[in-house]
Specification:
The complex is a heteropentamer. Chain B is mainly alpha-helical. Chain B has helices at residues 7-24, 33-50, 69-94, 100-119, 123-141, 148-179, 184-190, 195-211, 220-227, 230-254, 263-282, 288-309, 312-343, 354-357, 359-373, 379-393, 397-422, 436-454, 457-467, and strands at 58-60, 65-67. Helix content of chain C is 77%, strand content 0%. By secondary structure, chain C is an all-alpha fold. The chains are: A mainly alpha, B mainly alpha, C mainly alpha, D mainly alpha, E mainly alpha.
Chain lengths: 168, 468, 102, 508, 631
Amino acid sequence: MGDGLMHTLAFYFLAGITLAAATGVVFKRNLVHSAFLLSVTFLGVAGLYMTLEAEFLAAVQALVYSGAVAVLVVIGVMLTHRDDMSKSNPPNKMVVAGAGAALAIVGVLVWAVVATPWKTGRGAVVSVADIGRRFLTDFAPPFEAVALLLLAAVIGAVVLFKGGKVQS
Amino acid sequence: MNFSVLILEISVAILALLLLVIDLSMEEDQPRRNIGYLAACGLAVIFFFSFTRYGINATFWHGMFSLDDYAVFFKQAFLIGAILVILFSLDTVDRLPHSRAEFYALLLFAVVGMMVLSSANDLITLYVGIELMTFSFFILVGYVLSDTRSTEAAIKYLVLASAASAVMLYGMSLIYGLSGQMGYAAIATGLTASPALLVGGALLLSGFAFKIAAPPFHMWAPDVYEGAPVPVTAMLAMGSKAAGFAAMIRVFTNVFPATGYPWALLALLLSGASMLVGNIVAIPQTNIKRMLAYSSIAQAGYIMTGLVAGTAAGVKGMMFYLMIYVFANVGAFGVVAAVSKHRNGENITDLAGLARQAPMLAVAMTVSLLSMAGIPPLAGFMGKFFLFSAVIDAGYLSIAVLGFVLSMVSVYYYLNVVKSMYLAEPIDDRPFEAGLSLKFTVLFAMVATVAMGVYPGPLSHLAEVAAK
Amino acid sequence: MIGLSHYLLVSAALFGLGLFGLLTKRNLIAVLMSIELMLNSVNINLVAFSRYTAADASAGQVFSLFIIAVAAAEVAVGLALAYAIYRGRGTVSVDEIDWLKW
Amino acid sequence: MSLPILSMILFAPIVGVAVITCLPQTAGRMIKMVAGGAMWVCFFLASLMFVNYDWRVGGVQFIEQLAWLPDAGASYSLGVDGISAPLTLLMSVVGLSGIYSSWRIDKRIKEYFILFLLLVAGVAGAFVARDLLLFLLFYEVVVIPMYILIVVWGSTKRVTKEYAGMKLVVYLLIGSGFMLAGVFMLYVLANPAGQRTFDMTVLSQIGQSGVIPAQQQIISFFLMMLGFATLASMWPFHYWSPDGHAGAPTAVSMVHAGLLKKLGAYGLLRVGLLMVPVGFKFWAPMMAAFGMMSVIYAAFICLTQSDMKYMVGFSSVSHMGYIVIGIATADVIGLNGAVANMFAHGIMTALFFSMIGHVYNTAHTRDIKDLGGLAHQMPKAAVGFMIAGMASLGLPGLLSFVAEFTIFTGTFATYPVVAVLAISGIILTALYVLRALADVLFGPRLTKWDALPDLKAPEMVPLVLLAAFLIGFGMFPSLLMNVINSGIEPLTPLLVKIKTAATLCGGL
Amino acid sequence: MWAEFSLTHAWLIPLLPALAFVLISFFLLSSPWLASRLAIAAMGSSFILALGAAAAVLTQGITVEAPFVMKTVWFSMPGLSVDMGVLVDPIAATLLFVVTLITLLVLIYSTGYMAGDPGYCRFFAFISLFAASMLGLVIATNFLQMFVFWELVGLCSYLLIGFYFFKVSAREAGKKAFMTTRIGDFGLLLGILLLQITFRTLDFAELAVKVPAYVAENGAASLTFIAILIFIGPVAKSGQFPLHVWLPDAMEGPTPVSALIHAATMVVAGVYLIARSFAIFSVLPGALTVIAWLGVFTALFAAFIALTQREIKRILAFSTISQLGFMMLALGVGSLTSSMFHLMTHAFFKALLFLGAGSVLHALHDQADIFQMGGLRKSMPATCLMMGTAVLAIAGIPPFAGFFSKDEILVAAAHVSTPIYLLASLAAFMTAFYMARLFILTFLGKPNPHNHPHESGLAMLVPMGVLAVLSVVGGIIPFAMGFGEWVRFGPAHHAGIDWAVAGASTVISLLGFALAWYIYGGGHTRSNDLTIKTGALYTWSFNKCYVDEIYQWFNRTFVGGLARLSFWIDIHALGAVVDNAWRGTGAAGSEMRRLQTGQMQQYAAVMLSATVVLVILLAALTGSLVKGGQI
């Protein structure tokens, strides 16, 4: 995707999809729709990774997020909502305040992005091998920690679900 | 690559896994007390072993994960805290309907997370350490599924902690973008002044402020502390907070100093806000865990004055204070755990007449609370002495005055508890039952609190060495 | 020519949307989804920086991978808790989860 | 002397606590005897110390020093000079009397005596400490036992005992919060990091050498003053004190008025004047004025009180005003008088409270309007009342007179207006003291009080002991004044320096 | 030998009674016989020592200028050194003699008068304590020592006035006495302090040297102020207007106490104080003028009130005030000799009058109204005779004691100021009148049938007899022996009689007698007429010119008002600030607690808004730094 125009078009397309889908996630009143749009958002983000030449990451994004996480979300939706889905995802009373806070944060972030003179240049191309090496060298401690974290999450999920069974 | 640097974390992780394995070999309805004892003993062995780690000052792979005296000191604080919490939680855990061994394992996972945090020398390790600790707590907080308050607390903690993580991560990403580096030392050299640094620093600070529950980032804490099982609250109040400080001190002293970032001022504001909000809102509380939550917010305010000072003496004061806070906290929550189990209530009125039914526990509670308030000759006074003399030395008299005065205001609500224990009539005539290990733990914490107040020399020396 | 700032702006917008959702959605699961949006925006940032500026380019992507892993675990635990509270109270409406207060 | 006599004084009550802790709750008499025994030991040791204190040599004597917290420059360092030796004696006398005034306690005896002995030990430690950190440690430790003693064994009159106790605690502790900041500020400013010390002698030398800039001294002293003056119940920081007295059980009132307030004044002198003299000079005129306000204002209020404990409570505010004024003079004579009055007022007010306590314990009222003619039923207590009352109004022949006269002499030279107004306090004092004595002790015999017992053997101890000190030192004041002067006279160069230094704030 | 011993052991004079006090109060409270004998023995020894001291003064050439001094440091510190000691000079010797003698007599009298009283032992203890204090006062070497004993005699006075403490009136009278003298002490203390500040000493001898020098150098203005402050003490102690109010009430005490303390000894302490420090006063003419005028006013004022009083002891009390006025007046006109002389003779006859009154009251079972008496001369002849002697003495009829002393005062006054002399003579006239009135109504006329009087016992009559003798010869003997040679200030006072003054005063006194006889001699009718005719004047006199009422009003309104105001401020201003601050903190806590709504999204909103605020704050703080290229 070295080509400038292609890159530009791809970017706008993917960014548009991502943001539109994300908007849908936030504003849709049907939780199931939101969940599907979330999946679309994740895919859009994966596309953006592609345009950034992070193919491995894009793949992981598509697999883990768009696949696993979104499916998990849908399961969650199914488990917790069994009645009418069309009004399952209403906004609460602080829409205006929330919008204000969100806009304020976005404003700050945009200011940071725009006002900062970023050192732009071409970063090194990151290969999967690079990533793998780093996992096993200098980032080995967090890598192991994250392994424990996942174990904890598994135990947690089991405990939290199993507890329900014992109860019922 | 030097895996011996990780030996403490690995030991604890292996111990946790061992507990899980042993649990598998036991019948479902067998008590899991022995697992608790095993966890405590294992941790104790690791704790004593950790003394040999002083003076090593090694890093894992070019400075990414650092085992210096500073880290060892904090790891010891987490370990001793975890040992004591496990010892006084045996009774509480026994009453859980299920997954009792997993409770200890998760507690150990949380400890591993804290230990990683105290050594974290780069943003990734920092993040993962925080998440490992936080995840374990999500589950631990919501452990009592029969009590939806526990679940509610867990959900609140999960949502808010994740939001805070997101904010913090955004800050990290900006800093990464500016410096192009993940390691603290490298970041420090690569940073240039810019709005992105400003925003990134602020977001990072917000994340830390969330972890140490400094107002206005504190609002999760009272709800979560109240809903969580008592031992978990104790661990949250000291471990999570101490780990937050451990990481924060490292970031603020290693990453930002050269940039002229006015972090002393920010710390000053957060510290003042913590003291004020914590102490004032604690006054009308009726639930003792909630009161202790606000009290711990105030404690965080005192501790942060060390960061305001920003000197080695200030850091030493923070470390000293965090260590003694562990004991005070264990003492207080241990008694709360006993009362909660015995009387099924966690209100201040549920402690009524404790002085007659269980004088030892009442004394321990009094000593712990007064230590938090900084009444001599208890350890809290010495802690405040180190902190506030450091901050006065750095030229911030006002925050020291505020700290002293508000810590004396805090005596008011602590004494309300004391009054309830000593003055009010017991609410029932049942002889007060408390497990032997709990009594031992509480007594130990009390003795430690008094001892470190009367003879603070060794700990002070240790903290001073570690702070350098 | 698409540069760093474009990605950063998209990321900021995504962050803002996620934040808005976090603050305003009444359904707990929607709130969890909003958090995922915020985490994704961080990831876009990291990858963009790694691509455009970073001296240590691979670290950004490594970080992103960590975040993805953690986020996945978070969803799992979050849903478990949501289910637990649903069992206990029959609702996942965030504004009804307010027994603990004051 | 190689005997660690000061440590023994300090640890006598603590050993008592340890022994009592091991006794069963039911062994009430045994507990009382152990407590009494501990305080007798303390008293004898303190007397021995006082007698052996060589006032011709002066300076700090009976020094003991052990390393404690070398990192911070603090050590376990004890010693007494001419100022603290009499106060240590005072502590033991009032403490011992307090035990015997508590003889009628019958509720939760064990806890009561444990807390009371802790309270006394705290005061003892503060008086014998030569290390500032050690001083602060003991200074603060007294408040909490006091609180529990008030809320459990106290009495509710105009205000509830819970309120009174809490007010006392909050007031004292917030005051001490400010004070701690001021003291640590001094500690930090006095030496560069690494060489810091809490040694009182060294800090005094540094404070007097002018190393610390004037502005800092002024701030530091102000903060200290908020704490010490609150404990010394100086107007307008006295509001905790009368309610505290009224709510507290007898012996606690005795310790509170007799010892704790002296601790505040002692702090003003020992820490405030000696370590931050420039700050002291700046605030001294205000202190003198506030001291005078204490004297007059509290004396006026005494006229309206019908609860005897309130009356004596306000009266102790009034008398503490004299002490504050005496200290504010920064004059050899005034300071001598202030220290002497600390001793005198400590004994006197303890005696007063002890007698009131006896009346209250037996008659269950202490309202002047209800009582009357008690001299018929309890002549011995009446004698005690008379002696205390006469000491209160500064009758010569009792120690208070010598002390007050000395203060007046010192004050007149420095603050004549304050002196005149403060001296007019003696008229008001006479007015309320005589009114109370007349209405309580004299007048027709009231049959409803016929059943009241007079003082019995153990309860005579406070009366005899305290009266003996009041009269003995009153007739032979040199015994006391020489010792005090040996502590004050060496300060002359400093005091002259304070007096002659450029004026910071207009004198009154 | 004996004189020498007495002089060098003069400190024993106060110490012996003090010892008696201690012994009685610790060991003899329940053995009346032993207690009284011990007190009398101690007092007797003191008396012998006092006599010896007086003899030593006469024989060893001890003069006012060269007193015998012995002292030791009481307490001292740099800049303030206070001694306790013994100073014996002719003035002090006179007082020692008078005090020990009268105390001894009163003690003996009391064994009869107080017999059977439940507080018998207490009484003797207190009298002993009083004697010790009074004697200590007399031999004081400096102002502070004098002040110390001054206060102690005040204490004894308080204790003895309130001796019948079960009587509310006695209790109140004691309180009043103490309070009133306290006001005087305030002035005295201020004066003493000012002296200490000014001269760095309080020693009488040193002051006598320093004061004239100071006056010569700096003028008299500031010292006059000091002297007047000091004078306030004697005003209260010696019952001068306007602080005389306590003395009439002090008669609530047992009569021997009135005789001893409130007539003969303690009340003259004020006079003695001025005399003792006359070196100061004598160089301050302004102060002397004040003293003289206040003295003469008091003499008149008290005599005016005494004219109409009905209680026997009250009349005597006002008489005492009046006579004290004379003594003050004498000092004010610069005649220390006449003042001391009158002090001595007054002690004799006034003590006698009181003891006589006591005898009467004893006989009449405390019937105090003279209009209810009458005709006692038959039933109590000895008392009547001795009272008559005393009346003649006080009225100044030659050759009784009062004649010589009063004459000297009038002479001295006449030398200085004619108005003072005239007013003093008027007072002397009134004295004669009211004393005659008292005597006539009590002893002459018809007996009251309700009374069943009887003569008192020997224990009471013998001391009275001694005093009666002294009332007769107590004036002429010292006069003849040259009292003024010894007891003087400055040059020796030559002994002689100014016949014009003496004659005039005798005539005036006789006129007073005659008028009294005219009014009261023939029954009660004329006196009733008089009451009606003089109207307002009578009411004023009878009500003691309403001074007490004014004080009460002042006390209630101002002192009480200020007290209530202070208390109100304490509770509602100072207290309210604190309580409300406290309550406010609690309320703030409760309010802030409400912010914690339990809604996690609100928590999140707060957190994120705070982040934004943090950023803005930082930007504002570091704005300049950012522009400068460095945050």
